[in-house]
Amino acid sequence: MTDLWHYLKSQADSGRPILLYGMGNGADKIIAVCEAYGIPVADFFASDGFVRGHSFHGKVVLSFTQACEKYGAENMIVLLSFASSRPEVLEAIDRVAATCEFYIPDVPVCGTDLFNAAFYETHRDEIKAARALFADEQSRRVYDGIVEYKLTGRMDILRATESDPADAYQNILHAEKFRTAADLGAYNGDSIRDLRQYAPDLRQVIALEPDRRNFRKLTEYATALRETGDTLTVHPVQAGAWSHTATLTFHGSGNRNAGLTDAPAEAQGNILPSTAENPYFGKTAEVPVTALDTVCEDVLPNGTHMDYIKYDVEGAETEALLGSRAIIQRDAPALLVSAYHRSHDLFRLPLLVHELNPDYKLYLRRMAGVPAWDINLYAVKE
Fold first, then answer.
1. S-S: 162 plus which of 1, 128, 295, 368, CB 3.0-4.6 Å?
2. Strand pairing partners for 56?
3. How many whole angstroms separate alpha carbon 239 and alpha carbon 246?
């Protein structure tokens, strides 16, 4: 079995230029992998109209037109190195992909384990076991497509795995039944706002968010609900979701990618370049973490049934699930678990959820956007 990285190496060795479309942390990660494989990156470019004369990794950033003129659209291989779900950005990406050979490399949000051919062979049995747990054919198609995309980097395969978020809320989770929920990785409250569109009877939400700036906005949202007499009560908790109470290192970017580690980045093996281009550069802090089981005992009245838990905790999903083991086994709440931050999340998280409560039926969907982010594992007891 081959994979994208070995293919790029063979093409680079034959003289074809490899260019990165985009800059920033995503490009840093792809560059690190290319360097490990001995794949030279010829240049960087941005969409026409977005070039401001800046440089990246010592090279002047080209426009797409300039890149085509310099290397020839028919000769260069382009690697997308940023993420987006905005329709106008996806249209721009489609225009580039229609002009030249184009790939979207899969590099993990957390950790350095690449989902390459060797990784697939090492974890083949786990991948197969997780696939067997899914309750419908669409989940298995999405799963197979994501695995194939991760190995090939092909955009057409990735885009074919997209689905409508409303379908999951209405036809898998049945959110109209929710009254009590927990949002782990609540950001500024936006995911609670989204949930309310499908859960009109929602009455209380425990919302965990460790980032200081995000938590301030989350608290403002909770306060506004209370002051306007809203039927929903949000209980903000400034902590990360984990398996137990502790204090951990937090990489705080003030955005959705802010995340926890249980060790310094160097020990974790995270691809976090020690340059100012890294959005986490110089922005680490010690933050409290806790288990949802503990929080619920402290916040909710005794005997409150948990209907739904969302886990989007930037690579700490395994620990967060373990920290809500008692609730999962007692109440079997519907679960939405982000399954894309680490390369093994795609198969180990379904296996873990099944272990925690074998009565769950499992489903997999992926929302629109590139790369393979917003992969959601759903668990429901029907």
1. 368
2. 59
3. 10
Contacts 24+ apart (CB under 8 A), 135-141: 135/361, 135/362, 135/363, 136/363, 138/163, 138/363, 138/365, 139/362, 139/363, 139/364, 139/365
Q: Give the span between the Cα atoms of 261 and 285, in whole angstroms.
A: 11
Angle, CA 196 vertex, CA 189 and CA 206 arms, to 5°: 50
> Do the Cβ atoms of 148 and 275 come closer than 8 Å?
no
For 231-251, what is each residue's pLDDT tens digit?
999 999 999 999 999 999 766
Assigned token pair, 188: 């500024």
Within 10 angstroms of residue 93's Cβ, the number of other Cβ atoms is: 21
SS3 183: strand
Token output for 214: 């995000």
pLDDT, tens digit, for every residue of 350-367? 999 999 999 999 999 999
Q: Specify the residue for token string 């060797």.
A: 118
Contact 239, 212 (CB under 8 A): no
The DSSP string of 118-177 is: HHHHHTHHHHHHHHTTBSSHHHHHHHHHHHHHHHH--HHHHHTTB--HHHIIIIIS-GGG
